[in-house]
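Troubleshooting entry. The earlier prediction with magnesium ion gave an output that would not parse, so I re-checked the input for stray whitespace and re-submitted. Clean input:
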Amino acid sequence: MDAAFFTAWIDEIARAVTAGRERLTRLDAAIGDADHGANLDRGFTAVREALAAKPPATPGAVLTLAGTTLIRKVGGASGPLYGTALRQMGAALGSAPEVTAGELAAALEAGVAGVRKLGGAEEGDKTMVDALAPAARALTAAVAGGLKDGEALAAARAAAEEGARTAVPLQARKGRASYLGERSAGHEDPGAASTVLILTALHTTATR
Ligand code: ADP
Ligand code: MG
């Protein structure tokens, strides 16, 4: 997977986030402040523009620029969190011109660690971590088990979906939704839902 692959992934995220904007907004209206769709749409549109204006030469540089742009453009919690994830992934991939699925898995693990450290959320707190962490784990396991790239990324996407679903009945313990206490239970977390879009975009890009 080269810089063009990672740029195509970002383009696919931007497309999916624009298409899913209303749904993400609706989820955030229920347990937050109804801006998650707008935040990510604005953020990833800006990322796509930044990558087009000055195409980076390596996967690491693509993800680092994407993360930096997201942090700059998105005021909500999700901007710094996803931005940090992408920047940590970029740092983990270094300056290699091409990366393997194993290296991508390790980078995703580093990205999740960055989100945990910045936001202080663990699995079960009903945040994006509930989808991100199982996705990274599934990708690592799938690569270790010898699955082909497309199958490994399908497993990561499925784990993100399962994680988002598992978090629905939980009570939020981090972020705005935690202000609702018990009333946050029974709703899908918007950040977990957008993580599913991001992992689905990765699988789509790899199998196109
Ligand atoms: P804001 O909450 O500032 O309005 P967004 O609506 O864009 O920002 O993003 C909300 C999502 O961010 C939540 O659904 C949750 O998944 C995620 N989130 C919020 N706080 C944290 C945190 N401390 N750690 C991990 N994820 C978080
Ligand atoms: Mg919000």
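This one parsed fine. The two ends are 13 Å apart (CA to CA).
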